[in-house]
Design a protein that fits this description.
The complex is a heterodimer. Chain A is an all-alpha fold. Chain A is built from 14 helices and 4 strands. A two-stranded antiparallel ribbon of chain A has the order 1-2. A two-stranded antiparallel ribbon of chain A has the order 3-4. Chain B is built from 6 helices and no strands. By secondary structure, chain B is mainly α.
Chain lengths: ~575, ~180
């Protein structure tokens, strides 16, 4: 039985209206990377203004706020969420659990087209009268829909509509990912034998399914306020000397709803990154992941806790002190399972046979940036430390280290790691290494100094910093330096795209399993995998995904799907079944 | 769903396509429950402010809607597809009638706005269910999944109906004081 040739497929059904999870994953990834490039250009434009204020006349204050807003929203939602769940999730879940496709392929296709529609609506907001919204990515009312905020005419409407469409897309995708993991695992693939990448994406998807409704609720209610004159979030207000008709709304209600979505969103992005990093480290250090079960439970505990910490984004909103105490406590508790994951990665590296391949470089880089960003998170999690720092560059530095740079490093590592499977070819290693070092060192040069700017008291979100007595001139030189590095690092990302584009067609052939990895996706009969993924039979799984460091002739690992009788040379007392810590 | 895609039957005697759809439906109902739970939270939080003006008496058409939705659920359970669809459409029409009869000014106060928002979104979920049901009606298992969804819609409606007209600030205060 051949799955590729079972029915005639034209170019259109194979690559455009495709229901194959791998094609959809690539569509998702390309769209997300494209819109991410837009976000990157916006950040460089903002840096131009901050580094050389007033030199670029087209960046006035309104435009600057529009850049801030679109950069934030694009990077968090349209790039990272879509890439981790729609890109990595779509490609890896069926291959890693041994399924032939997602369980609802048609819904999966719809999910991509809704996502594309959301992206197009978002980008259209650059061209509507008044331009995109400049309300900041948190879109706080009442200012988001009042006179004086750029894009209050059409920009805010396109933004909210785009978000609602995105949520529909994410829900359709999410139903697929969760149901596929629950229902379509192949024989022997118990939950505790799944690679941590699948665990991360699975848990993140559940968070997305439960958290995005909060954004949906707040988005729809704000749309009502804007277009139908309701007062969900709009108090009685005097704007530009005029009494508005709104009365009795609660802006704080929006903040609660938004952050009930916004905090899990951090982990929707972080958990897949955790999973990917675990896999990368284990494969390239040739060592079983340390504490597999602990890693799984840490993912689940982090996911659960992420729903009870949202108000730590609202310490400055004037909440009851006991409330702040509660949320500070839960926030600090999250550090425990998170630190546990970092220890386990480090202990996996400990005395491992570390191969500093490009994906491994990115994985180790991730640990570094994530630890730095996580530690400043402990500062900000405390109410008394957060209140003075909340409106400064310290928060910008923290946020970008932990949620900007770290997940992006995981994305790069993941793409380099699975690129040979997706394309069948190897990327250019030299370009890859160059890309890593410039990005990694550049990220530190850009964001590390911002901690100092923040402690100095430099406020974030400002368009210009003229005539503030407490900001010394050296802060301006530092800003210039950051801008120059940011432009350079931004341009370097073209190396990455060039490398992928060139290597997809001209790279050396990689073979089916270039990393000697043990998880299922490397054992497809074809590379790149054909429609239906597997041959006549789906694979049967006998152990966890991390059986490395078992020397047997040339091979030092055991694939998940090689039957026990082939597991020759196993150490005495070694039993093939409870693999990877997976007694189930 | 092509059965060739599932060479490993996961439960003896159960078509994996049905098992998938059943799981998918449960997950979806979880998402919808979360959505309406959050609307309820927003409603109750708003109610806590001192200027809250509750909704007037429920228009009687809403009781008719409740009966129609319950009847539609029974029709799906009995696998009478035609009646299931007709009663659901009648439910939507009755909701629209209630909207016109109630004639609360949408933007007059938050309670009115919540009324239209929540009933409207619930009606959209019933309408969406009808669209999916057109595809699902061909198999017995699909019809039973429709019945499950309609029962869920009824439970959700009863919760929202109760929330909108019988949960008062005083009631919320009593519940909050109990903790």
């Amino acid at each position: 039985m051949s799955y590729g040739g079972a029915h005639e497929q034209s170019f259109w059904t194979r690559y455009v209206w495709s229901q194959d999870h791998k094609v959809i994953a690539i569509q998702y990834s390309i769209t997300a990377i494209f819109v991410g490039l837009v976000g990157l250009v916006l950040s460089d434009l903002m840096r131009l203004q901050l580094g050389f204020p007033g030199k670029f006349h087209f960046i006035d204050a309104s435009v600057y706020y529009q850049y801030i807003t679109m950069h934030g929203m694009i990077m968090v939602v349209y790039l990272l969420t879509a890439l981790f769940l729609g890109g990595f999730g779509n490609y890896l879940i069926p291959l890693m659990v041994g399924a032939r496709d997602m369980v609802f392929p048609f819904l999966n296709m719809l999910s991509y087209w809704f996502y594309l529609l959301a992206v197009l609506i978002l980008l259209a907001s650059f061209f509507v009268p008044g331009g995109p919204t400049g309300a900041g990515w948190t879109l706080y009312p009442p200012q988001a829909i009042l006179q004086g905020t750029p894009g209050m005419q059409w920009g805010i409407i396109t933004m909210l509509v785009s978000l609602v469409v995105f949520i529909v897309a994410a829900t359709m995708g999410g139903l697929n990912y969760v149901t596929t993991v629950l229902q379509a695992r192949t024989r022997g693939m118990t939950l505790m034998r799944m690679p941590l990448t699948v665990w991360g994406i699975f848990t993140a998807t559940i968070l997305a399914l439960l958290a995005f409704p909060a954004l949906f609720v707040s988005g729809v209610m704000m749309l009502f306020d804007k277009t139908l004159g309701t007062s969900f979030f709009m108090p009685a207000i005097v704007s530009m000397g005029q009494h508005l008709t709104h009365q009795g709304g609660s802006p704080l209600l929006f903040q609660h709803l938004f952050w009930f979505f916004g905090h899990p969103e951090v982990y929707i992005v972080a958990l897949p990154a955790f999973g990917i990093i675990s896999d990368l480290i284990s494969v390239h250090a040739r060592k079983r992941i340390f504490g597999y079960r602990m890693m799984v439970w840490a993912i689940i505990v982090i996911g659960g806790l992420s729903f009870v910490v949202w108000a730590h984004h609202m310490y400055v909103s004037g909440m009851h002190p006991y409330f702040g105490f509660f949320f500070a406590t839960t926030t600090l508790i999250i550090a425990v399972p998170t630190a546990l994951k970092v220890y386990n990665w480090t202990l996996t590296l400990w005395r491992g046979d570390i191969h500093l391949t490009v994906p491994m470089l990115f994985a180790v880089g991730f640990i570094s940036t994530f630890v730095i960003g996580g530690l400043t998170g402990l500062f900000l999690g405390n109410v008394s430390v957060d209140i003075p720092l909340s409106n400064t560059y310290f928060v910008v530095a923290h946020f970008h280290m932990v949620m900007g740079v770290s997940p992006v490093l995981a994305v790069f590592g993941g793409i380099y790691h699975w690129f040979p499977k997706v394309s069948g070819r190897m990327y250019d290693r030299l370009l890859g290494r160059l890309h890593f070092w410039i990005t990694f060192l550049g990220a530190y040069l850009i964001f590390f100094p911002m901690h100092y700017l923040g402690i100095l008291g430099m406020p974030r979100r400002y368009y210009a910093y003229d005539n503030y007595a407490f900001i010394p001139p050296s802060a301006q030189s530092l800003n210039e330096f950051i801008t120059i590095v940011a432009l350079f690092v931004g341009a370097t990302q073209l190396l990455f795209l060039l490398n992928l584009a060139w290597s997809s067609f001209r790279g050396e052939l990689a073979g089916g399993n270039p990393w000697d990895a043990a998880s299922l996706e490397w054992f497809t009969p074809h590379t790149p995998p054909g429609h239906g993924n597997w041959g006549e039979e789906t694979p049967v799984v006998y152990r966890g995904a991390y059986e490395y460091g078992i020397q047997d002739g040339d091979s030092d690992y055991l694939p998940q799907n090689s039957p026990p009788e082939q597991a020759r040379g196993a150490p005495a007392g070694w039993s093939p079944l409870p693999g990877g810590g997976g007694k189930s | 769903m092509r059965s060739s895609l599932y060479l490993v039957p996961d439960q003896a005697g159960v078509d994996p396509g049905v098992a998938n759809r059943r799981t998918g439906l449960w997950v979806f109902m979880g998402v919808v429950a979360m959505l309406f739970f959050l609307f309820s939270c927003a409603y109750v939080m708003r109610m806590g402010l001192p200027d809250w003006r509750p909704l007037p008496r429920a228009p009687w058409q809403l009781w008719l809607s409740t009966a129609l939705l319950a009847a539609a659920g029974v029709a799906w359970r009995r696998a009478v597809v035609g009646w299931g669809c007709v009663l659901s459409l009648a439910f939507l029409a009755s909701q629209l009638w209630a909207w016109r009869a109630a004639d609360f000014a949408l933007d007059a106060n938050p309670a009115n706005s919540f009324f239209y928002l929540i009933t409207g979104l619930h009606a959209l979920h019933v309408a969406g269910g009808l669209m999916v049901a057109v595809g699902a009606r061909r198999s017995q298992a699909g019809i039973q999944l429709c019945a499950r969804y309609w029962h869920f819609m009824l439970a959700l409606w009863l919760a929202m109906f109760g929330l909108l007209f019988w949960v008062t600030p005083r009631f919320v205060q009593i519940v909050c004081d109990a903790f």
